[in-house]
């Protein structure tokens, strides 16, 4: 069987030598044909030129000979024309034509006195050649003018040229055939010698492919084929050293930690390792022949459904998460990697599947998620603590102003003229029986009317002061109530998404942070679109947390700079149903290296920082369908945080 296959390969190689010979032959024939064509056309052009020149000379000499009317009447001219025709077999006729187209003299019988059709004598200095048809054949006619303005016409055939060309074709063809035969024989001999080493290489490859690693290829030429044979022999030696036994491979597979399954084209298990029996809870006898699809919880696994179609299309599946069902009906989370082995014709041969148990990994992920939730809760509590601090600062500032008003009221009451008024009233009561005489003649009584007028003016002024301070005090009490209401609104986390007025929530957060901005003398520039109802779908407490973090980072970055401190808040409506909030400060700025890590958990540049403020902001924004980014031109050049929220579409807006 092997010998017949080798003979078939050798025959194919011999046919390959034929192909080389035929290829050379075709190229040679095309080259010779092209060269012959060029040569013949060149010879044709040269012969045609020489004949035209010769006949033009004959016509011009004949025209010069016609110098008088007497010569035209003599038989000498006709004899000359006859001689010219006789000496040149290719000439069909010679004519002497008058200026009106009448044939005066011709070597053809019966033409004298006839007129040439469509003949008009054109004046010209030099002779010229025109092509006409004569007895169904295209001929050249030379026209030469005599001194008497008679026209000499000599018509001649080009068959002589064609005969010479045909002779050349026959000669060239004969030479070409001889050359081709010689080259074919030489090329066949050369290609046979060239193919012989290739035949030897093919034979050696077949023998080595059948497992005989002791075979050596005997080619010792000092060319590329010899180098290839030498490399082939070295490869065989190296392959023999590295080839392992089947027992060794079985040992490797059985000691694999992960589960290995191999199926045939019918997708039934044909090979397993020990880890497969241990993980799947089946014996080896139970697994061999079992459909691979039966082991998986999902229908779209590598052995069935869309999972199988994807595997065939891509050729490989890597780390696909799934669940398998063990022999004890227990579900286990796994990672699956599978690849396809195909025959050379593309037909499915085997599916190799590696299954990794990720039960412990899943437990770790659950623990990590629990820690992550605690972290987010801590971040929220930290945000609420920041809000509470801001609110306490605001309430403290308001209470300070309210205290000043209360002290003013107390001072006004203490210094009030109401005491003097009561004393004056007491004097009037004591003199009620002698009131008229008291008011008219007693020095104290005379002073009382003027005193009452002055006291009335003073009490009016006191009343205005008390009225202003009481109004101011009531205003501060209302502000305290509003601040507390704001704190209560955002103190507890809202676990649901709702429509929120973005402008309103920014203004509320600015109130919370107002004390910090005032303390650090920060000027706030706000640029809002000309709309007062920009609705986003978000969670209130998370948005406040994010804004408080951004505002806090801004005033902390500006608290130590010497220049004017400015915070710019700009709200921009994007064209993709989103709205962007740009929060820019002119503080310390951020380096390029830190910009890449600013939202990473645990990263902080503050001595007392924990590194989860901005990280939690990024998570909150992602959960709400938005995103947060930071940009800075470098240290000392300020920072801009950009928050992008999805807008509530018009058709989704709820009536307010």
- Helical content stands at 40-55%
* Shape category: elongated
Radius of gyration: 58 Å
Tally of strands: 17
Question: How do the strands of the widest beta sheet line up side by side?
Answer: 2-1-5-4-3
Low-confidence stretches: 9-14
Structural class assignment: alpha+beta
Largest sheet: 5 strands, antiparallel
- Separation of the first and last Cα atoms: 89 Å
Mean pLDDT rating: 77
Descriptive report:
There is one protein chain. This protein is α+β, with helices and mostly antiparallel strands. The protein contains 18 helices and 17 strands. The strands form four sheets. The chain has a five-stranded antiparallel β-sheet with strand order 2-1-5-4-3. Strands 7-6-10-9-8 form a five-stranded antiparallel β-sheet, sandwiched between helices. A five-stranded mixed β-sheet has the order 12-14-15-17-16. The radius of gyration is 58 Å and the shape is elongated. The model is unreliable at 9-14 (pLDDT under 50).
Q: Layout of SSEs?
A:
Blueprint: H1 2-65, H2 69-73, H3 75-87, E1 91-97, E2 103-106, E3 128-134, E4 137-145, E5 151-156, H4 159-209, H5 224-242, H6 246-254, E6 259-263, E7 269-272, H7 274-280, H8 284-287, H9 305-314, E8 316-325, E9 331-342, E10 348-357, H10 359-414, H11 418-430, H12 435-441, H13 443-491, E11 498-501, H14 502-512, H15 514-519, E12 522-527, E13 535-538, H16 540-558, E14 565-573, E15 578-585, H17 592-595, H18 613-623, E16 627-631, E17 639-646
Parallel strand pairs: 12-14
Antiparallel strand pairs: 1-2, 1-5, 3-4, 4-5, 6-7, 6-10, 8-9, 9-10, 11-13, 14-15, 15-17, 16-17
């Amino acid at each position: 069987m092997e010998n017949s296959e080798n003979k078939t390969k050798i025959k194919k190689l011999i046919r390959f030598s034929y192909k080389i010979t035929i290829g050379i032959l075709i190229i040679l024939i095309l080259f010779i044909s092209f060269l012959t064509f060029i040569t013949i056309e060149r010879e044709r052009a040269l012969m045609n030129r020489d004949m035209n020149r010769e006949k033009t000379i004959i016509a011009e000499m004949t025209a010069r000979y016609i110098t008088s009317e007497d010569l035209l009447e003599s038989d000498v001219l006709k004899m000359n024309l006859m001689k010219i025709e006789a000496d040149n077999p290719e000439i069909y006729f010679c004519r002497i034509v008058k200026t009106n187209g009448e044939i005066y003299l011709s070597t053809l019988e019966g033409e004298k006195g006839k007129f040439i059709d469509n003949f008009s004598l054109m004046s010209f200095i030099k002779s010229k050649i025109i092509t006409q048809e004569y007895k169904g054949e295209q001929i050249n006619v030379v026209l030469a003018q005599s001194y008497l303005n008679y026209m000499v016409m000599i018509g001649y055939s080009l068959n002589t040229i064609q005969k010479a060309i045909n002779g050349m074709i026959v000669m060239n063809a004969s030479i070409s055939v001889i050359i081709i035969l010689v080259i074919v024989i030489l090329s066949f001999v050369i290609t046979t010698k060239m193919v012989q080493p290739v035949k030897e290489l093919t034979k050696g490859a077949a023998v080595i492919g059948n497992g005989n690693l002791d075979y050596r290829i005997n080619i010792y030429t000092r060319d590329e084929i010899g180098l290839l044979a030498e490399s082939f022999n070295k490869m065989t030696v190296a392959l023999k050293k590295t080839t392992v036994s089947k027992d060794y491979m079985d040992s490797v597979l059985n000691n694999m930690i992960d589960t290995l399954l191999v199926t045939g084209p019918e997708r039934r298990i044909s090979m397993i390792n020990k880890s497969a029996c241990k993980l799947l809870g089946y014996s080896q006898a139970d697994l061999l022949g079992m459909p691979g699809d039966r082991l998986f919880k999902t229908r779209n696994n590598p052995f069935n459904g869309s999972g199988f179609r994807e595997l065939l299309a891509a050729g490989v599946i890597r780390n696909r998460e799934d669940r398998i069902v063990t022999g004890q009906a227990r579900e286990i989370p796994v990672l699956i990697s599978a690849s396809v082995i195909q025959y050379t014709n593309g037909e499915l041969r085997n599916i190799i599947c590696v299954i990794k148990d990720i039960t412990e990994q899943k437990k770790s992920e659950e623990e990590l998620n629990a820690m992550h939730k605690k972290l987010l809760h801590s971040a929220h509590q930290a945000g609420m603590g920041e809000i509470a601090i801001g609110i306490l600062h605001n309430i403290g500032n308001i209470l300070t102003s309210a205290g000043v008003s209360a002290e003013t009221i107390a001072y006004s009451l203490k210094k009030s003229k109401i005491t003097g008024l009561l004393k004056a009233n007491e004097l009037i009561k004591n003199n009620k029986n002698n009131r008229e005489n008291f008011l008219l003649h007693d020095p104290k009584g005379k002073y009382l009317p003027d005193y009452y007028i002055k006291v009335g003016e003073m009490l009016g002024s006191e009343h205005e002061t008390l009225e202003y301070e009481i109004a101011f005090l009531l205003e501060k009490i209302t502000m305290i109530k509003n601040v507390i209401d704001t704190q209560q609104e955002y103190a507890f986390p809202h676990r649901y998404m709702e429509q929120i007025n973005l402008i309103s929530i920014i203004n509320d957060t600015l109130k919370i942070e107002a004390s910090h901005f005032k303390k650090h003398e920060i000027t706030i520039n706000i640029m809002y679109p000309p709309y007062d109802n920009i609705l986003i779908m978000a969670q209130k407490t998370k948005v406040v947390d994010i804004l408080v973090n951004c505002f806090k980072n801004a005033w902390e970055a500006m608290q130590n700079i010497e220049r004017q401190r400015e915070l710019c808040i700009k709200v921009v409506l994007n064209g993709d149903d989103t709205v962007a909030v740009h929060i820019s400060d002119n503080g310390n700025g951020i380096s390029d290296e830190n910009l890449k890590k600013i939202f990473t958990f645990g990263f902080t540049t503050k001595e007392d920082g924990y590194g989860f403020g901005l990280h939690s902001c990024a998570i909150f924004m992602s959960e709400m369908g938005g995103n947060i980014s930071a940009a800075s031109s470098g240290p000392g050049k300020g920072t801009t945080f950009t928050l992008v929220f999805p807008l509530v579409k018009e058709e989704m807006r709820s009536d307010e």
